[in-house]
Amino acid sequence: MPADVLVAFDGSPLSERALAYALETFPDASITSLYVINPLDSVIDVEAGGLPVAADWDDDARDRATKIHTTARNLGAEHDTELDTATEVGRPARAIIEYADDHDVDQIVMGSHGRSGIDRTLLGSVAESVTRRARIPVTIVS
């Protein structure tokens, strides 16, 4: 059994299922919920509604991260588990893999996709990239 499990968590229903899976499957592991702030999201926001002020974008992204971490902690509490949470900024697949490498993670658990529509088409599948590039086992929950 892995000692340190990383769950990629973006608040989507599949990431919630992935976190629940990790909590149920690895009850003795140290579990970290990782949210990645993707700066490319601001490009999509610009296309949709105008140029954001840099400070406002960062504050909004950090506020969203706080809400997502609260959701993850609440799910952990439902399983009587205290989770660690982390936030990284960057391309999601790269950030997940680098975090796992830097923190000696034994297992990554993530949903098969967190987004749909144009984000997924333009940016590719994060789950696929992590699965191909990670040096440790990756469990994909669908």
Layout of helices and strands:
Blueprint: E1 4-8, H1 13-25, E2 30-37, H2 40-49, H3 54-78, E3 84-89, H4 92-102, E4 107-111, H5 118-123, H6 126-133, E5 138-141
Parallel strand pairs: 1-2, 1-4, 2-3, 4-5
Helix pairs in contact: 4-6
Would you give an account of this structure?
This protein is of the alpha/beta class. The protein has one domain: 3-Layer(aba) Sandwich (Rossmann fold), CATH 3.40.50.620. The protein has helices spanning 13-25, 40-49, 54-78, 92-102, 118-123, 126-133; strands at 4-8, 30-37, 84-89, 107-111, 138-141. Strand 1, helix 1 and strand 2 (30-37) form a beta-alpha-beta unit. The radius of gyration is 15 Å and the shape is globular. It starts with a strand and ends with a strand. The relative contact order is 0.23.
What letter string, H or E per element, gives the SSE order? EHEHHEHEHHE
Proportion of residues in β-strands: 15-25%
CATH topology: Rossmann fold
Structural class by helix and strand composition = alpha/beta
Q: What's the helical proportion of residues?
A: 40-55%
Q: Can you tell me the CATH architecture?
A: 3-Layer(aba) Sandwich
Q: If you average the pLDDT, what whole number results?
A: 86
| Fourth CATH level, the homologous superfamily | HUPs
Can you tell me the number of structural domains? 1
Counting DSSP H or I runs of 4 or more residues, the number of helices is 6
What is the total tally of β strands? 5
Main sheet record:
5 strands, parallel
**Main sheet: strand order:** 3-2-1-4-5
Distance between the termini: 21 Å
Global morphology: globular
**Poorly predicted sequence stretches spanning 5 or more consecutive residues:** 44-48, 117-124
Q: Kindly provide the radius of gyration, computed on alpha-carbon positions and rounded to a whole number of angstroms.
A: 15 Å
CATH class: Alpha Beta
Quaternary organization: single chain
